[in-house]
Each structure stands twice: as structure tokens, then as C-alpha cells.
Amino acid sequence: xxxxxxxxxxxxxxxxxxxxxxxxxxxxxxxxxxxxxxxxxxxxxxxxxxxxxxxxxxxxxxxxxxxxxxxxxxxxxxxxxxxxxxxxxxxxxxxxxxxxxxxxxxxxxxxxxxxxxxxxxxxxxxxxxxxxxxxxxxxxxxxxxxxxxxxxxxxxxxxxxxxxxxxxxxxxxxxxxxxxxxxxxxxxxxxxxxxxxxxxxxxxxxxxxxxxxxxxxxxxxxxxxxxxxxxxxxxxxxxxxxxxxxxxxxxxxxxxxxxxxxxxxxxxxxxxxxxxxxxxxxxxxxxxxxx
Amino acid sequence: xxxxxxxxxxxxxxxxxxxxxxxxxxxxxxxxxxxxxxxxxxxxxxxxxxxxxxxxxxxxxxxxxxxxxxxxxxxxxxxxxxxxxxxxxxxxxxxxxxxxxxxxxxxxxxxxxxxxxxxxxxxxxxxxxxxxxxxxxxxxxxxxxxxxxxxxxxxxxxxxxxxxxxxxxxxxxxxxxxxxxxxxxxxxxxxxxxxxxxxxxxxxxxxxxxxxxxxxxxxxxxxxxxxxxxxxxxxxxxxxxxxxxxxxxxxxxxxxxxxxxxxxxxxxxxxxxxxxxxxxxxxxxxxxxxx
Lengths: 291, 291
Prior knowledge:
homodimer, alpha/beta, Nitrilase/N-carbamoyl-D-aminoacid amidohydrolase, 6-stranded mixed beta sheet, 15 strands, 25% helix, globular
């Protein structure tokens, strides 16, 4: 029960049409190589606009379904692949989301997921732009399986991966936009990249699920010309024991990886973690503190 | 705010007195080298007796406090170190626990933790011997900090580490007994070891806490002479970003590591994961399934 998954790791330009052209070219290339599911980076239509807080940038938002969904649906149908894309969603005036969209291989919208955990860090001012998703965390049913789609900052939360697993996900998928502050030391950069990969591999381990994380790459300067982000690429896939199956470097990369979906059943038999969860003792997980 | 932590990674013999002698010698050596906290492997008084289900082996259990607590308290006071040890606890006839005991540096019992998640695998028949701990998961207050003591199988559960963090732990500690089945392939062994280290590093990352895991080493044959376990050692310490600070190989090892406890505050400021937990959406974590 192998599933060939592709990713399109791209550097984004300031021009949305160019970006969408690169992305759809990547989808076509992955599909031609045999991918039945293609995962795109977070917010792939534009530069990562959250480096500054600017009300005018809500103009970049669009409805779901809308133009980006249509464009992705069109290439999904053309190539007969399932696509996990990403949209800056305008849900109503004043309510905008960071939304993953899943296009079925016939081009229809199979489902969406609105980013649950919203970061706010210097250079990643997402709390200004994105209303947190209102849940529940639930996989999207598609012809290639139940896709546990989460987005970027969600990847730091074991809770999110666990909820997707408990809801029957066959695979975890993380469209992402993460990079380095060039002012950080080489050691700090290494710790950050390692932590990012390690915690996602741990979700595969804890839940006995394969996982694919897809990041953008390239350097994007901040609008105020101070700082900027060097997106680290590093898109990767892990198997159900957290083992690294494939990974990209810092350059644009249309990756392809074979994922054995039957590993879920096999690994959960030898690592029966879900059997032994102490749900009688987990109530405080829904509290801010347990002191 | 550095804390020097020692571990005593030992191969256990069939003789309890020899084991306790080796362990107390190790504590003395670690203390002499500057350790203020020494962590021991799980069930360090005996062979890992859970390779078979034998009612007579409940004879190995003892009360807490009791002889092992006394012996550890004695060496803790002698060396003026805090010790995290492990006891097969007889709580009442028919109720036995896999219990971590924390001895203060004056030799008194600071607190205990009863293993919450109990495994049951071929060769690890723990559900026969150990009643699951009845919680709550709470750190033990000591002169060297609030110790988030968990035990072995707990290490596969992000929930356990999270609960300790939310309850104010300063550090996560995992006495452990884990090893390879020699019948497994080299690849499978590598996946198991990597997963074991990776998921624990991920608890450090998710919670911004340092972590020390201490395993036994050596080969112990099964009582029925079929199979047996090659305990893989590999005791290690990780910092608050999950970075590996020190690690042991497969041989007996009295390790020493400097842990910067102020890293908790520093790292949680740059990685504010606890701020963004969506406790409004976590209710299903207390369910068996979320379907």
C-alpha cells in the first residue's frame, strides 16, 4: 500500500503569478514522476507577508473556494493528483485564516484546515493576520487516504498531531514557512533546524504515522529592510518509526518519496502506544497550568 | 544556575547486593566529580525480571520507604547528593508498582513517582507485575529543583512530559530499562534507538525543559533461555532546545553533565509554545479515539 508523495519546495518572488506558475510547474513535474499526492509550502502565493504588521496586506486574502483553490483544482484535475495547498483566507471582513486547502484529483475541494496554533515572534507577526482555527482538528478524507493536515506552528504541538491520530489520520502533513534570522549564530541555527526536524519526527513516532513537512526556501528581506528571513527549506518525509525517508537541502526542490501506508498497522502492533494512554489522568492537558 | 547531573549506567548481575554496591559506588564517583543530582536506571536492584511472568518474583518487591530507599538515602546523605532511584514497590498484597524514589541530599525521602504508562511487549511483561500509577503526574520538590520524574515507557508519551511541564517541573528525568531483541535486524535496531532518543529530545523541545534519560546496559538472558535483551545503554542529556549535551555508549558509564537550568526561562521566551496551546480544542485528548 505505497503512496508516492511529492513536495514542491520553492523560493517565492514578489509576484503572485510567477509563484503560482512555479508551483503548478512543480506539481506537474511531481505528478509526471509518479506522485499521487503533492504537498506545497505554507502561503505559497506570495512572499511571507507576516514580517510586518500592515492592514493593507489583508488585500492579499481571498475566499475559499476562490482563485487559488480554482488554480490548484485545475492542475490537480489536469495531473490527476491530490494537492495540499495553502491560502490566506478571507472568511469575512475582520476574520482571516491561514488555511490549508485539499484538492481532490478531480479538481474538487476535498476539505480545508484552518491553522490552529498561531505564532507571534519577531518577524512572524501572525497573530495580527490570522484568526486561530476554530477546530475540530480532523483529517480530510481523500482518494489517497485521510490526510492529517496541520500547518507550520502546529508542528511544535504534540497535542495537534495526537488529535489527528486519534481522529484516524493515515498521514501527517505540514505545509510550513520557517527560516533563520541571519543575526543568529551558526550553533543557534543548527539547534533550531534540528529541533524543527526532531519534534516532527517525534509526532511520527508517538502516533505511528508517516509524516511530510514542506517548507519554502530563499531569502526574503523584511519590508522595513531590517533583518529578513532565510527560509531553510529542508522539506522531509519520515516513516512511522520517525525514520527519515527523504529530505531536501536549502535549494528549490521537487522531491518524491514512497510512503508505505501499511506501516501504520505494522508499527502500532509492535509499538502499542495508543493502547496505554492514561486518559483518566490527562484532564489537566486542557488547562493552562497544572499547578 | 548550572546543575551538575550524574548518571550511573550499569549492567545488572543476578545478585542484588552486587548491583547495589555498583550503584552506590557509581553515586560516590559521580558526587566526587561534582554531581549534585544522580539519576539511576530503572529497577537497578535486580535483573530486569519482567522477561517472564512468574508470581514468585513478587518476592523481589519491597515497601517504600524500605531497604532500597534506606540504602540510597544513606549514600545520598554521605555524598550530599540528591538521588533518583527505582524500586519494585509492594504497596499492599496484590498492588505492586514500578516506583521512582527521590532521596534528598540529607538522606530523607523527598518524594516518589509511580510509573503511569505500563508496557506489555514480548520480553517486557510489565502489566503482569505493575499496577499503573494513580497519579497525578507532579514533580518532586528537592533542593536542586522540581524534578519531573517519569519512568521508561512514559517516555513515549508527550502527554506525560507536558503534564510535568504544566505542573512546574524544572527538568525531566527518565530512569529506563530498554534494549534490543538480538533477532531484530541492524536497521530495526537503529530505528528503535533513534526513535527512543528522538522522542525524548522532542519532550525537551515541546516543553523548553532539560532532560536526562538513564538506561541500564549489558545482556540479560531470558529465564526460559529463549531470547533475552541487549540493553542498549545510551544514557543521555538534552538541553531546553532538545540539543544533545552528553551521551553514553553501550558500556557501563558514570556520566556527568552540566545543565543550565536558566535555559528554561530563556528558551521559553524565544519559543513561546506554552503561550499558544489551544486548551479550548484539547478535550478529545482525554478520549480513547476522537472519531
